[in-house]
Write a structure and sequence with these properties.
Elements (H helix, E strand, L loop, with lengths): L3 H9 L6 E4 L14 E2 L2 E2 L4 E4 L13 E2 L1 E2 L8 E6 L1 H16 L6 H16 L13 E9 L16 E4 L12 H9 L3 E2 L5 E3 L3 E3 L4 E5 L7 E9 L2 E17 L5 E4 L4 E3 L6 E2 L14 E4 L8 E15 L4 E18 L7
Parallel strand pairs: 1-8, 12-21
Antiparallel strand pairs: 2-3, 4-14, 5-10, 6-21, 7-8, 8-9, 11-13, 13-18, 13-19, 14-15, 15-17, 15-20, 16-19, 20-21
Helix pairs in contact: 1-3, 2-3
Length: 341
C-alpha cells in the first residue's frame, strides 16, 4: 500500500493527486452533468438535473444559491465507486503521463510508480480485473470550488476495494443523503426583489406595501444521481419559500410586522399587493421610513427563507437545514413637501 512519504509525494505530483476532482464544467453549472476524464483525473459521476445554476432565469438576473442557516455546509469531499476497468485506465494513464513528462522529478516518478505497483502487482493484483463483477474501487472526490477548504482534505484515503453488498468503510461514502446535500448546494433561486407601492420612490412616514409574486416564488428542486460501479442511487432536494425578511437599510424605519418577517400566505404569495382605497390601511408586509434618504438611497434588503426537504432511493428522506437568499434594492425616500399659501 502507498503510505507515508510516498502518499505525500504522490499528492504533490501535478495532475496525479489521488482525489478525483469535480472541475467547474461538472460542478452544477449545467442542467445535466456527468463524469468522464479530464487529463489524468476522473471527474465526479454525479449528475444534476432541475433548478441548477443558469436555469432559474440566469443571465445576471440576480438569482443565486442557498446560504445555509447556521454552521452546516454541504460536503466538500466524498467517495464514489469506480469499475475495475475504469480504475485501471485512470492509474495507467496517470503513470504514463508522469513518467513521460520532461523534467519531472525522480521522486515524483517514484511515487507514481509505487502507487501503480500496489494496485497492479502488490497488495492487489491487476486492479482486481478478475473480480470486476464482484465489487468496485472507491475513490475520493473533492469539490473543485472548495479545494482549499479544510473540509475538502477530510477524504484522504487512497482508493480501496469493496465487494458488492459490503458496507463502505468510510463516513463520507456517497449515499442518497449525501446526494441530497450535494443537490442543496446546486439549487439556483430567483432574485429576491420585492414589489413596492409606492415604487422605488416613497415618502417619509408613508407606509410602503411590499409583496412577492407567487408565480415566481414557488418551490424549486434539484435531483442528484449517480450510476457508477455497482451503485445506482439518487435524491431530490426541494426548497420551498416560507417567509420574507425585510431590512430597510436604516435604523430610522419601521417594518410591518414589527419583526420584519412576512410569512407565506396560503396561496403561496408573500405580502399583499396594494390596491386603491387602502392608503390608510396598515400593510400586512411592508415598511415605513422615518427620514429622507437625502441625495442618495437606502439599500432595502429582502431575504427569503426556504424550507429544505429531500427524498431519495429506497424511501429515504428528511429535512436539511433551512437556507436563505436575498438581494438589495435601492429605495429613494423623500420628504413630503408642504405648500405655503
Amino acid at each position: 500500500m502507498v503510505t507515508g512519504a510516498a502518499a505525500g509525494m504522490l499528492a504533490l505530483v501535478p495532475g496525479t493527486a489521488y482525489a478525483w476532482g469535480t472541475p467547474g464544467a461538472s460542478n452544477g453549472q449545467k442542467t445535466e452533468t456527468s463524469g468522464g476524464r479530464d487529463g489524468s483525473s476522473l471527474v465526479s459521476r454525479v449528475v444534476y438535473r432541475g433548478s441548477t445554476a443558469g436555469t432559474q432565469g440566469g443571465d445576471g438576473d440576480g438569482g443565486g444559491s442557498l446560504k445555509p442557516v447556521g454552521n452546516w455546509t454541504p460536503p466538500a469531499c466524498w467517495y464514489e465507486p469506480r469499475s475495475a476497468e475504469e480504475f485501471r485506465t485512470y492509474v495507467e494513464n496517470m503513470y504514463d503521463e508522469n513518467v513521460s513528462t520532461p523534467g519531472q522529478h525522480s521522486y515524483a516518478k517514484s511515487a507514481v510508480g509505487m502507487f501503480r505497483k500496489d494496485y497492479k502487482d502488490g497488495t492487489y493484483k491487476n486492479y482486481n480485473l478478475d473480480k470486476k463483477d464482484e465489487g468496485s474501487w472507491w475513490v475520493a472526490v473533492r469539490d473543485e470550488d472548495r479545494m482549499m477548504e479544510p473540509e475538502a482534505q477530510a477524504c484522504n484515503r487512497l482508493p480501496f476495494w469493496v465487494p458488492n453488498g459490503d458496507p463502505v468503510p468510510v463516513a463520507e461514502a456517497i449515499t442518497p443523503e449525501v446526494l441530497a446535500e450535494l443537490a442543496y448546494s446546486r439549487i439556483e433561486l430567483p432574485a429576491t426583489e420585492v414589489t413596492l407601492a409606492p415604487e422605488q420612490t416613497t415618502k417619509v412616514n408613508l407606509p410602503t406595501w411590499a409583496w412577492l409574486d407567487k408565480a415566481r416564488f414557488k418551490e424549486v428542486s434539484v435531483t442528484a444521481a449517480i450510476d457508477a460501479g455497482a451503485l445506482a442511487i439518487q435524491a431530490t432536494t426541494t426548497a420551498k419559500p416560507v417567509s420574507l425578511k425585510l431590512e430597510p437599510g436604516t435604523p430610522d424605519a419601521e417594518t410591518y410586522p414589527a419583526s420584519g418577517e412576512c410569512t407565506i400566505n396560503a396561496d403561496g404569495s408573500i405580502g399583499e399587493p396594494y390596491a386603491k382605497g387602502k392608503a390608510d390601511d396598515t400593510p400586512p408586509c411592508g415598511l415605513k421610513y422615518l427620514r429622507s434618504s437625502g441625495d442618495g438611497t437606502f439599500a432595502l434588503q429582502a431575504t427569503v427563507t426556504w424550507d429544505i426537504t429531500w427524498e431519495g432511493t429506497g424511501g429515504a428522506g428528511g429535512d436539511l437545514p433551512d437556507g436563505t437568499f436575498g438581494n438589495d434594492q435601492a429605495v429613494t425616500v423623500q420628504e413630503i413637501q408642504a405648500v405655503n399659501r
